[in-house]
Predict the structure.
Amino acid sequence: QGNINLVTSFITSTKNNVVVLQMYATPIPDKFNINWEMMTSSEKQSNVFLNAFLGASANTLMKISKHEVKTINEKTFLEVKSTITASGVTQKQINWITVYNNNFINILGSTLSDFFDENLFLFKNFSNSILIK
């Protein structure tokens, strides 16, 4: 639906909540030389990357609450938890971001903030089901 980087998307809703699971693969422009190992081993480099990739420093609606390095199916990911508030509605999301074959891979789980904790298990299972080869 207009996003050429969207690999897969699952959306379900009830009258009170929407749950979104998505995976994106975004080509890295040739002019950028990304050393993912260095990016994830340095707190400073991780912060610079997240501010650039997610636009967190420029997007005053997004607040990153936590990020850490995780290994999923033998790949190194940055796991990022954040909140976004728009039009008075707050959603929480979790992203797993990695680099593979000159692409940023972004796995996303998102829901309204009141329902995030009860859906976190679903989001983590989804991220663990992704095999990148």
